Amino acid sequence: MRILLTSPLARVRKLRWPRFRIGRVALIYLAIEFLDEFVFGAREAAWPQIRTDLGLSYAQVGLVLSVPIFLANLIEPLLGILGDIWRRKFLVIGGGLAFAASLVALSVAGSFEVLLVATMALAPASGAFVSLSQASLMDSAPALRERNMVLWTFAGYVGALAATAVIAGLLGTGLSWRLAFAASAGMTGIMLAFALRARFQYVIRDTPVVTKPIGHQFATAVRDLFRAVRTRRMASKLFLLEISDLMLDVFLGFLALYMADVAGASPTIAVASVALWIGAGTLGSVLSVPLLARTGGVTYLKASAALAVVLFVTFLLVPSLGVRLVLIAALGLVKAGWYPVLQARVYDEVPERSGSVITMTNISGLFGSMMAAGIGLAASSWGLANAMWLLLFAPASILLFLWRAHGARGSATP
Asked: Which pTM value belongs to this model?
């Protein structure tokens, strides 16, 4: 009897947290990601108030959501390549200054035109400020990329949760949503002050590492980039990174609508389901640290994708609202490690060109940015309940690609 009682505890003890230290510069990177997700989380939470205050139509809201992302995917590839061959710290600081200026404009926007211009400036500024910070975090400890990407994702989750709480608090006390963006501009200034004083050492190179003209370096970087993208390994990793978003941001984007229009939830329950998804993802990102240390990224992806298929099919079929809420939390836990593991695998493929990885993901992101629109069009034609089945392409693709690449030889390495 004693064995039966103690063996589960013994198994739990085996799932130990790896011991690690986070340097000061790495903390700056994580704080930048927290701020970025806080800003965009605050915007998503405040959309009803922004729409009312500025008198926006649904078409104008759609433009604000889509045009800046498309513009960023066109500009950020250049920033990524420059981040490998030029002064990356200068690009990060410059992006941070533009990020802060965009937030100030957003906080005082009084019309659709000002709002659109502010968000169009904010998106590429985030690319320089945030994406290159992520690349530098990957450079800081190549052997710990998966762990650091989990920490990065966790910082983003916490930022999004904090934004939801702040917007709710502002509106509950009769204050304006604008204060959240004005405060974010101030926080950006504080982070830039820390970044300027930090000694980035080899993580962000302040001077070019070679003496060839920058034009020659740029051409070489572009040639290496296309050579890497053409390989089957890199193409498959970029595909999995983008297709996984069907079960990440795309699902989140349609979750409240699905709960209200298909599951019959009240508006309060629909909003609560979004908070539940984000909260479960936050917890899942924490738990994935010891899981990844114990199992490895590929094994984790296989197991979590298989479980996600079962959970998501059940979510779509079960009629009970309460059970659906439980399944939302379970899915949030299961998928939490997908983005950090898949993104780390892309970085591993080009270990000496972390900035170029940003370029590659932006190019593939042009495809990924159309997935939400595709689901929306499918929902208009077939109904949202039927269109949501398309999201199963995410876990199914992960299983198919990883089993084909690793299943036959039982490898657990990317």
From this structure: 0.65
